[in-house]
Amino acid sequence: MTRVEEPVRTDLAAENADELRHYYYQMLLLRRFEERTSEMYVKAKIGGYCHLNLGEEATIVGLMAALKPEDYIFTNYREHGYILARGVAPGPVMAELFGRETGVSGGRGGSMHLFDAKANFMGGYAIVGGQVPLAVGAAYALRYQGRPGVVVAQMGDGTTNIGAFYESLNLAKLWKCPVLFFIVNNGFGMGTSVAMGSSETELWRKGASFRIHGEQVDGTDVLAVRDAVRRLRTRAEAEGEPALLDLVSFRFRGHSVIDADRYRDPEQVRKGRETNDPVRNFAALLHDHGIADDEWLKSTAIRVDREVQEAIDFANASPDPKGEDLFTYMYATPVPNTPGPEEAARAVQINRGEL
Ligand SMILES: Cc1ncc(C[n+]2csc(CCOP(=O)(O)OP(=O)(O)O)c2C)c(N)n1
Predict the structure, then answer these.
(1) Which residue has the CA at smallest separation from atom 13 of ligand 1?
(2) Are 114 and 83 in contact (CB under 8 A)?
(3) Which residues form ligand 1's pocket by a CB distance below 6 Å?
(4) What are the structural domains of the chain?
């Protein structure tokens, strides 16, 4: 087990400059996407629950930089950034948040249920811990079928207090599942701090009694995250050795877009944002090393703003799902008594108060 006390400093001279600039572009895309998502929520374009990745951009981009196309990803409901960094276009992601037919889940899932089978993105799950056993099952399937790749079980710190988490750790080790438990430790589960909710506050230790290796990583450092995932991914795939990563990051806002964040001291939040901003810090790092100049940073910001605006325009111009398609996509294969268009039409009438 390791606890990284000092931030790991990657030698930038040994890095590919285009790749570094791409990480920055992706992090800025996530940042702007989430800021505009918040705005769209206030404009009532988005309904239901909505959780943002603001402050967690380095964790997400670092993870995706280390994964391979054959890997699978299961996440919690705070997953907009993950599907974007996995390479899915912003338009269909925003359209899903808007509940439109062109969304990645056909407008049926919304913010908490983004999904893209082609990208091996197995979805956001709203039940805390629900994704963890599923990810272990998928990892077991990879091993059983002798296929390459690993599975990522992304979750928040609060999820590590859920029973399903421990059952999953046990089976993952016992059955040699190539799975990475990826814990985004933003310090809070809704309004409950790690110290208030967990008898073990060093989350990287939580795999110890299952003999699962754990590490703590600075979740605001995109390169540290990428390097840790790369290393543990290789071992998980080659040896069926699961691992647990505790990625310390800072949640910029409340739990969801409607949470006023009253349980945190505003001054601490302000300071936290100032010192733990992964996007701004990475821009400064690239600038200091002559990898990104002012002009490039400015043109990248313009490009990102345009791409997010195009995603919003796409979502706005997309149709709502049709009433008669209410039961489409319910089952992967036909089952007896599946409701069809007639039942759908009836349900629509009931909803309108016509029946
Ligand atoms: C089984 C279950 N219990 C409670 C909730 C309500 N709930 C939604 S999010 C959340 C906090 C989870 O926090 P964490 O795992 O740290 O994830 P984060 O929101 O920080 O990404 C809770 C308790 C739920 N969705 N499912």
Answers:
(1) 189
(2) yes
(3) 76, 78, 126-128, 155-159, 186, 188-190, 255
(4) 2-321 (3.40.50.970), 326-355 (no CATH)
What are the angstrom distances between the C-alpha of 308 and each of 27, 110, 133? Answer: 13, 18, 34
Average pLDDT of the segment spanning 30-48: 97
DSSP 208-220: GGGT-EEEEEETT
Summarised one tens digit per residue, pLDDT across range 273-309 is 999 999 999 999 999 999 999 999 999 999 999 999 9
DSSP 3-state of 5: coil
Query: Looking at 122-126, 200-204, 339-343, which range is the least confident one?
Result: 339-343
Q: Give CA–CA dist 223/58, Å, rounded.
A: 8
The pair of structure tokens assigned to 265 is: 């001291």
Mutate to test the pocket of ligand 1, among 190, 196, 251 (most ligand atoms within 8 A of CB): 190
What predicted TM-score, i.e. pTM, was given to this entire model? 0.96
Q: Token pair 């230790």 is at which residue?
A: 205
Q: 159: CA distance to ligand 1 center in Å?
A: 7
Provide DSSP, 225-254.
HHHHHHHHHHHHHHH---EEEEEE----S-
CA 135 – CA 181 distance, rounded (Å) = 9
Q: Which backbone phi and psi does 186 adopt, to 5 degrees?
A: -95, 10
End-to-end Cα distance, the chain:
63
pLDDT digits (tens, 9 = 90+) for 88-143: 999 999 999 999 999 999 999 999 999 999 999 999 999 999 999 999 999 999 99
Rounded to the nearest 10 degrees, what angle do helices 131-144 and 163-174 cross at?
A: 10
pLDDT, one tens digit per residue, over 226-283 is 999 999 999 999 999 999 999 999 999 999 999 999 999 999 999 999 999 999 999 9
- Whose C-alpha lies nearest to ligand 1, atom 25? 127
Strand partners, 74: 153
